[in-house]
Amino acid sequence: MIAVRRLIIFVAQILALLFIVVATLGGALFGDLMLNGVPVLGNFLVIQSNAGPISFFGALAGFFMSTMLAAVFFVFVEIAYNTRNPFNT
Fold first, then answer.
1. Alpha-carbon gap, residue 63 to 27, rounded angstroms
2. Where are the domains of the chain?
3. DSSP H helical ranges for 37-53
4. Distance between CA atoms of 49 and 55, rounded to whole angstroms?
């Protein structure tokens, strides 16, 4: 039972790290979309930016948001481990 629990936690941690990569790429793609203009409220308002580093900042924002979510996940994993094994040092 302990081996299965460890395997599940390991797979969840790998998926959390994969989420960081996917969110970083998603942020970069969103930043690239911002370069071409994004329609807001249908075609009523179009946000257009010609700044080059927006794609980089989108990737940076995606990375930071995903690392914060992954950090919360890893804290919960550590809390679960310490709850089951309170006196392990």
1. 8
2. 2-84
3. none
4. 11
